[in-house]
Amino acid sequence: MSKSVYNRHGFTLILLSLCLMVIVFMGITLSTVLNGNYVKRVVSSESNVSLIKNYTNQKLGSIVDSYAAINDLEATQLSTDQVRTIIDSSVDELYDGDNNLTIGSVILSTIGDNLKKAAKTNGLNIDSEIDQTVSSNKGIMDQIVNNDIGPIDQSLQDIKQVQRIVKVIIGVASVLFVLLAIRLRRKTKSNMMFFHHMGTVGIITAILLAIMLVLIYYPIASYITSNVEYNVRDVLYNILNGIFTSYISIVFMVFILSIIDWGSTGKYKYN
């Protein structure tokens, strides 16, 4: 193949790269950011559970002070397993697009159960008083939840619709990619030349994705720094970094495989 004929496919390669970029980026997004089960795994990591546990227990400290009959701070402390259970139910609510979050009620109910166990251990039968005390803190807890999680809940209200749109975009981009790839194969009339071009497409796609990730990551990190409370900020940073690590690993894999493909078929460039 002459150099002029080789270069003639440049526009097709660019279109293929853009389609592949959309497919890869949207595919990763659908399986990470838009996937509640994936988010659960990230949020439930040891470091995040520890941060959430410490933050929540700090906020709950006032409840034991308001109920002096059980002078036991540990009664209002959430255990690691309880935090994981609350995380699972919270993520489910957020990704179901539920307007009425029950996270605060779940936390208070758990604390109420802990207080009742502590009361019985101390020979006290004061379940009704504990229920009243916990209920009186519902407004405060709802406010804490709305302040910390409200913005996230608002952004996920249309999550189901977003998931459907992303799937449609992936489908359209995939069809275009296949049609363009078939066209390129017919034009090149050579399997090895075709694979060389696809290596070029993969390299361009990886570079475009890397640029896109940089442009997306830093504004999000800056927003978290400026608008989120310190303790919650650390959790969101961990989640953000965990998700972007998934993006980066796949982009890196695409780049390496494309380099191998491009290099191994390079000798057929002008044949």
TrEMBL record:
Keywords: Membrane, Transmembrane, Transmembrane helix. This is Cell division protein FtsX. The chain crosses the membrane at residues 12-34, 165-182, 194-219, 239-260.
